[in-house]
Structure formats: C-alpha cells, structure tokens
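Objective 1.3, modelling of assemblies. Example input:
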Amino acid sequence: MPEQAITQPEIDAVFPKVAQTIADALGCDLDEVKPKSSLIEDLDAESIDFLDLVFRLEKGFGVKIPRGKIVEDARGPLPESEFESKGVVTEAGLARLRQFLDEVPTERIKTPLKAAEVPRLFTAETFCKVVIRAQRAAA
Amino acid sequence: MAIDSGLQGKVALVTGGSRGIGRAVVERLAGDGMQVVFFYRDNAAAAQEVLAAVAAASGRGEALQADVADAEAVGAAVERVINAHGRIDLLVNNAGIVRDNLLGLLEDVDIRAVLDTNVGGTFNVTRAVARHMISKRSGRIVNLSSVAATKGGRGQSNYAASKGAIEAFTRAMAVELASRKITVNCVSPGVIETEMSQQVRDLADEQIKARILLRRYGQALDVANAVWFLASRFADYITGEVLHVDGGFKME
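Predicted structure (tokens):
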C-alpha cells in the first residue's frame, strides 16, 4: 500500500521539537537548524550523531525508530540489488530517492551517489518525516 | 585524607560482580563513593554477600540478575539502571567464563559458551550502555582482558581467543567513541587468586609461578585498583590502552 503523503502542517507541527533535538544532539545553535539543512554537510554531523539523534527523537517523541529503518525506508520497495550496484545508487534508486526525499533539492540527488553516502542527503525535514512515520506506525 | 578521584557520586555498572575480580571491583568503586550497580548471572547468594559487604563499608550497591550473553535481557537491565539513576558514568565489562580443554577435546558448546559470554556479552552490554554515554558526551569503559590474550596457555584456545577479541574491541571502540569524550581501556590480569583460576593453579602451580617475575599470584584487589585508576580522573588522557596487572608475566 502506498504511503499516505506527509503534509506540510504535519511537518510544521513536529519541526520545532525536532530542530531543538538536532541542536542538542549536535551541540549547534537552534537557529542554524533550518528545515533544508543537511545535517552532515551544513551542520557538521558525523555518523555517530545520527545514532544519538535517533535515540533522542525516540525518547522525546515516545516513538520507536528501529535500527536501519531510515535507510530501509529510503530504499522503499526496491530490493538492494536494484537500488545499488557495486555500492553506487542506480538510476532506479535515484528516482526512488527523489520521490522519498522530496525535501532534498533534486540537484543534490545525482549520479554518482554512493549508497553509503545517502545519509549525507538527510535534512532536518527528513527527520521530521521519520518522526511522523514512527508516530503513524504507533497509532 | 582521601584523594579526589572524581568518582564520588557517579554511577558504575559492573558485569559479573558477584564473585572474584568483579566483586573486588564493585567493592573498590563503592568504597570510593560510586553508586555501583552490578549484574550477576545466577549466584544470588553471592550477590547478596557482595551487597552486604558494600553496605557494611557504607557504600551504595545494587544487584541485578542478567546474563550478559542474552542481548534482550541486557537491554532491559540497562534500561532499568538508566531509569533509576539517569545515567551510567562507568561501565566495567568483567563478566567472563572459562571452559579450558585441548581444542580437540572441546565441545562446540564449550567454545560457544565462552565466546558468547566473554565476547558477545561485552558487545551486548557496551552497545546498550554506550548510547547513553554518547548522549551525555562523557563516560568510561573498562574491559577485562587476560594475560591469555597475548600469552595463551595450553587448553585455553577458546578463552584466549575471547580475550584477544576484547582487546581488539577495546581499541576499535576507543576510536569510535573518542569524539564523544568516552575513553575505552582494558585491564589485563595475570593469574589472580580467584575461584576461576583455581583449576589452572592446582594443575601447574610451580610452572606458573616460575613465569611470574614477582613469583606470586595477584589478588583481585590488585586488578580492582587498576580498574579504579582507569575510571578515575587520573586517567583522563588514556584511551585504547591495555594495562597489564600480572606481576611481570613472561613466557620463556
């Protein structure tokens, strides 16, 4: 079943708390955290910060975000073998990412994109959507 | 006058705390003012004795039953500690078992039990605790290795391999957690007078002592003192290290 689209009001509702959580996890100023900020490229996050961030979001919102869930969701219905080839995201994979990460400017989702670098695309809004999906799953 | 180790009031979690070296670590840390929670697998009576000893010395201790090889049980037990205390400042991965025998005589179950408890247990508990330390941006992890990691004896293939893994794990975790100001070190005891080493001491007493420069076995407190040091503020600038407490054990 296709996912029910996430609406802007839903994102606006969780953004302030998600932004504060990101600021806490990364130790940056709250006003640096914009919906379109890439956590890794704009806010200097490291992969270990994602672990901490997800942990804090789980606690703050009272939801469960299973390990690996974000990347798995990003891949969507595509099996790993169609999503990437030799570690590089395929055309089909890129199309899927543009659809799933519609908050990310499409010009950033271009070949060659290594599968391991997909998290570089994640923005504050990506994490708003992660929280909304987790809330929906719990409802 | 007591020296300020920086440990007073902080929370420690020690695995395998009801006996041997683990017990000495629990008592040493509680004696220095830490709130010490320890895991024990099945010896509730021994755990009660430790708690009584801690209380008699005006320390604060708490025992939780948990098999470190059981990831789910470990997750639940660590959550209980966090809910009760809000944080874990120090983790001591001490729980370990031996099933010595020549490789050809080792049953699969003896190999697996040692690796599951010694290595798997260290992974399970560290994974559950480190996430909290990462959030706090501080913490200390001290893992218990053994002289067997570098100088394994006959019949110790499973145990030696498990302890070698723990030393490698220590160095990798030191790298992984350094940016969060968490230090990860190892204490590597030689032959210590505990129940666990009784068999090997009975079998080869003179041969072993001949290899120890100080010509005697160590005491659990010798190891506990090293753990205390690595946990204290005196070890602020030490990470990824193995501290040998073995009386100068040599292989000649």
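The longest helix of chain B spans residues 108-136.
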